[in-house]
Amino acid sequence: MFGLFRSKGDASRTQRLRTLSLFVTLTPGELKIVDGLLHERKFLKDEVIFDKGDEGQAIYIIIDGSVLIWPQGKPVDGQIIELGPGTFFGDLALLDNSVRSAQARAAMNTTVAVFFRADFMGLLQTHSLITSKISLQLARHIGKRLRESHNLANSPQHL
Amino acid sequence: MNEPVNDSGPIVGALIIAITCLLLLAFQRILFLVVPFLLALIFYYILYPTVERLVLAGMSRRAAASLLTLAFLVVVAVCVSLMLPWIILRLNDWEMAVERYLQGGIGLLERLLAELEERYGILQRAHLAGTVAQRLNEFTGGFAEHYVEPIALGIAGWTPSLLLAPFLAFFFLKDGHYFQTFLVRAVPNAFFEKTLYLMNQVDQAARAYFVGLIKLTVLDSVTLALGLWLMGMPAPLGLGLLAAVLAWVPYVGSILGGLLMALVAATDFPTEPAMAVWVVGLFILVRLLDDFLYMPLTIGKSLNMHPLVSVLMIFAGGAVAGISGLMLALPVLGVVRVVCETIGAVVTDPRLMARYWHGRALRKAQANADL
pLDDT digits over B166-224, tens only? Predict the structure, then answer.
C-alpha cells in the first residue's frame, strides 16, 4: 500500500554505499538500516548545496557527479576542492551543529545521499554498534585530513 | 518542543493560535479518525525501538512490524475476552455503584456542612447543609440511569474505530521512514536541510509528549495505587489508573480524578470522614510530585511553552472543540508552533529564497535547453 513512497533503485544505491569508506566496515544488514535513513537529492550543475555559515544538519555523500567546495564568493585558484563519486563532505555536521566552513556547489548534474544528524543520533540510541563503526571511520577520515593539512603546512614551499 | 527556530513575532504567534484552533475544530469533526491515529502514534513510538532491534537481528522490517502488531493484537484479544464477560455481568452493579458513590459524596458534604452550621450561626440560619444537599440530590437524581448506560454504549460504539489503531501502527512501523523520505522528496533543494530539521523537531516533540504521557500515567498510577493501598482503600490500582488517565485532560481531568477518589473514600468509609481528607491529601501530594518530579522526568519541557499560554490554549481548545479540544490543545499547539516558526524562518531568509529561485532558473534553463 505504501509502496508508492519508496524510491526506485534502492538496491543499486546500497551496492554503491558499500564501497564508501564511511560505511566500509558495516555488515549488509547494518548497511540496509543506514540506507533506509538516507535521503537522495539531485542537484543541477552550479546549484548551491549549502552556503558557508549555514547551520550544518547533515553529511552529503556523492553518489554520482562531482561537487566543488570553496570559500564563499568568487572561486579562487588553489582554494577549490573538487570531490567525485564515493566521497563525502559536510562531515563535521554529523558531530555537532557547527556552521558550514565553506560553500558546496554542484560541478555537474550530481546525485547525493544525505545522512541527517538527527537520524545518526537516533541510530546512536538504537544501534550503537553501527554508529561506533561510522564514527571510527569518520575519525580516521578527519585524522587523515588533519595529517594532510599538517604536512602541507610543513612542506618546503610553505616555509 | 525543543528550542524554537527563531523568535516569532505577534503575527506568527496569532497565526499559530488561529491554526491550532482551526485544527482542533477540524479534529473534533473527524475524532473517529484522530483518536485511533493518536493511539497508533503512541504504539509506534513505543514499539519502534523493538522493531529496529529485530531488523538488526536480521528480520525484515515488514516481518518485525507484523510480529509486533500481531503480538499486540493477541494481548488485546486475550485481555478483552477475559474482561468482556466480567464487564457485562457487572454493568448493572456499576449503575448502582455510581448512584451509591454519588450519595456517599453528598452525605460527606452534608456532614461537613452540618458541622460548619454548628460552629457558625449564620450558616445555620441559612440552612446551608439542607439547601446544598437538596440541590445536589436534584442534580444527581437518576444520574446513573441517565449517563452510565449511554457512556458504556458510547465506548462500545468506539470499538470499531479503535480497531484502526493497530492497523495504522503496523503501517507506521513498516513504512514510517519511507513516508518521511517521500514527504521530503517534494521539498526544493534550497529548503531541504531546514525542512529535515523541522520534521525532526515535530517528530521529537510528538515522541517526547506521547511516550512521556504514557510514562507519566504509569508513575501516577503506581504512586496513587501505593498510597491508596496503604490507606486501605478498595481497588487501589483501578482507582489510581482511572485518576491518572483522567489527568490526560489537563486541569479539569485532574480535579475530576481527585473528586472521584474522594467520593469512593466518603462512601466506603462513611464513619471516617478523615479518610476522604487523607485521600484528597494524597491526591494533592501526587499532583505536586507530578509537577516537580515526574513531569520533568517524563514529558519534561517537550512543549517548552509559557504556562499562561498553555492554560489559555487549553481553555480555548475546550471552548472550540470540547473534551477533545482540552486533550489535544497542547500537542497540536506544539506541532503547529514548530511548523509555523520554521516556515517563517525559511521564507524570511533572503539567501534561502535566492537559492530557491536560482535552482528554479537552472531547472527551467535545463528544460528549455534543446527547444
Answer: 888 888 888 877 777 788 888 899 888 888 888 787 777 777 778 888 888 899 899 99
Report the domain count for chain B. 1
Domain that holds residue B218: 10-359
Q: Which domains does chain A have, with CATH numbers?
A: 39-126 (2.60.120.10)
Is the Cβ of B13 closer than 8 Å to some Cβ of chain A? Answer: no
The answer to whether B11 and B177 are in contact (CB under 8 A) is: no
Q: Does residue B21 sit within a domain?
A: yes
A47 contacts B359? CB cut-off 8 A: yes
**Cα distance from N-terminal residue to C-terminal residue, chain B:** 50
Torsion B314-B317-B319-B325 (CA) sign: negative
Q: Do A116 and B175 touch (CB under 8 A)?
A: no
Which of A1, A4, A5 has the highest number of chain B CBs within 10 A, making it the mutation to test binding with B?
A5
Angle between helices B61-119 and B143-162 (to 10 degrees): 170
Percent of chain B with pLDDT strictly greater than 90: 4
Evaluate whether residue B121 is within a structural domain.
Answer: yes
> Is B2 among the domain residues?
no
Calculate the alpha carbon distances from A140 to A20, A83, A114, A136, A144 in Å: 13, 18, 20, 6, 6
Is B52 an interface residue toward A (CB < 8 Å)? yes
Residue B4, domain member (yes or no)? no
Position B6 pLDDT exceeds 70: no
- CB atoms A57 and B182 under 8 Å: no
The CA dihedral of B63, B65, B69, B71, to the nearest 10 degrees, is 50
Name the least confident of A22-36, A126-140, B1-15, B240-254.
Answer: B1-15
How many Cβ atoms are within 10 Å of B165's Cβ, its own excluded? 21
Alpha-carbon distance of A12 to B340, in angstroms, equals 38
From the CA of A8, how many Å to the nearest CA of chain B? Answer: 11
CA atoms within 13 A on the CB side of A83: 20
Chain A residues in contact with B363 (beta carbon < 8 A): 44
Residues from chain B that touch A51, judged by Cβ atoms under 8 A, are: 351, 355
Q: Do B178 and A2 touch (CB under 8 A)?
A: yes
Residue-wise pLDDT for A69-87, tens only, equals: 888 776 666 678 889 888 8
Residue B301: predicted pLDDT: 60
Q: What's the pTM value of the predicted model, to 2 decimals?
A: 0.69
Could you report the per-residue pLDDT of A107-136, keeping only the tens digit for each? 999 999 999 988 888 888 778 889 999 999
